[in-house]
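During the first year of the project, the team set up a workflow for recording each protein of interest as an amino acid sequence followed immediately by a discrete structure-token representation. This format lets reviewers and collaborators read both layers of information side by side without switching files. As required by the reporting guidelines, we include two representative entries from the current panel. The first entry is reproduced here exactly as it appears in our internal archive.
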Amino acid sequence: MNLVRGTVALVGGGMTAQVLSALAGLLIARLLGPAEYGVYATAFALPSALMHAFLFGLDSIVPREIARKSHDSGKIIASSLIPATFWSLALSLLIVGLGFLLGYPRRIVMLLLLTAPAMGARSLTNLMRSVFRGFERMEADAFIQIANGVGILAIVGLALTLSRSVHAAVVATLLAEWITLAGAVAAVWRLTGFQCDYNAGMASALIAGAVPLGITFAIVGVGLRLDMLVLSLLSSSQEVGLYSAAFGCMILSRPLSLLPSALLPRLSKLAGSADEEFASLCEKGLRYTLFAGCAIGLVTSMSAPFLLNALYGPTFREAAPALRWLGITALLLFVNTYLWHVLIAWNSQKWIALSVLAGTVTALVFSLALIPYLGIIGAALAAVAREGCQLAMLSRYVAKKVRLVGVRNTIVSTLWAGLTFGASLWVVRDRTDAGVLLIIPFAFILFLAMLVVTGGIEASDLRTVRDGLPRWIRAPFSRRERKICG
């Protein structure tokens, strides 16, 4: 599949799924209120923090192995799915026990019996999605994401119509995750011609290669949700509900950071064999990631009151100061995710582990120091500190592996474009009306124009995007080029 089309499909599907998930969260929040929504968020906080541990890194290893050994795809799939399934069941029980040891109330511990298996099912679905990415079938990955979002929204909506309770919402989420998993497994089996042969030796090799990533991603997950975990232990369910709404708005941008996932198969093929081509692709991916991260981070920060009011209702607007800080987190998270995939392509997962560990320790220190005094704002500042620490370390590691000659120009261009974009959005910083939606596109045009003026976007980038568009869209541009040249 064309790289641009694949990326558009993957990002579009992810964005659609996130919107559907946000709608489900909006429905739960509006019907239950901040306090009960905080209970719902607390019940998912611990399983969500450990979600990456369910797969111990297999969802990053599997696409790489399939891209390199597509003829053994059946063995790769079976040899990763079976061990992951057994481990998911065991980890679900461990999460319930951990919740009890942390001192969660009995109500939360009982809910963990449902939320932990739900996260386990979602992780296995993510493993199936990674298979499609290995085959560069990004549209299938997008379809699964959208189907999951539709299922959660529909089933949760039906459950809350029958019973407006946290328990009903949790049970509905679990059911939707199981249905999505069954469909994803069936789709993968059909893709491989129902030839999924388990191989113990291959399973051991996959797990051995994935365990460093698994430890890393487990730390990533804990670090990413550490602010929420500490908040749930030190603050009221009302504050947990408010911060969960702010975090939910920020995480809407997460699918855009899937650009590195689309590049991973090609980066893996080029790593160690075509250094110049690898560096060129790596630098291009970094440019796209910086531009997208800067734009989405500024929109999140500047339109925080509007996003919270539109998605969760007026009772959640108190979370706007926290969401402004989380907008910075969104930008940093974009870049860090990209740098992870560059290092994965080079098989240098240990550097990711070290940076994530440092970021998690930083988040823990900031959370314990700030949350008791600043509440949800302290939690947001801890998230910024975590991602900033990781970025500093990851940048240093990547610079040792790849020579990126145009990074300084890219950063300068992004800074100028970001300042222009932020100044254009300043007028919407306190607004909650629909007029915000009219201003953002004009501000974004100025952002793109500044990128062109400062050399951030080159003619080759525009041609790449044009070539990836559907034929009926790019046809007028092609005719115009022929007229000019002829």
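The second entry, processed by the same pipeline in the following quarter, appears below.
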Amino acid sequence: MEYVLGALAREGRERLRNLAGEEDIRPLTAEAKGFDRLTEGVKVIGNPMTVYVRPEALEAMHRSAGDPWCSLPRATVVGGYFTAIVARLIKARRAG
């Protein structure tokens, strides 16, 4: 199980690095914005990881998440989009 989760995390980080802007971000926004509701009241503990995101993609994430002033922590915003990407990878593997 740990191997599978590691593989999904690697693929998710790669997809985050490849996000270029608003067009790439928009399809993930609904799932990413739901991340805070999903984890509300739950303390999530996991392995820390470094994720590289293009500056223009990060700005688009903040705007799409309804945070145009970029006041939310980067880890929260990027974590939401990372979770959306990995959730889609899991759904795709289950379907195929």
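For the second entry, the following points were noted during internal review. The chain is about 65% helix and 0% strand. The chain has a mean pLDDT of 84. Both points are flagged for discussion at the upcoming steering committee meeting.
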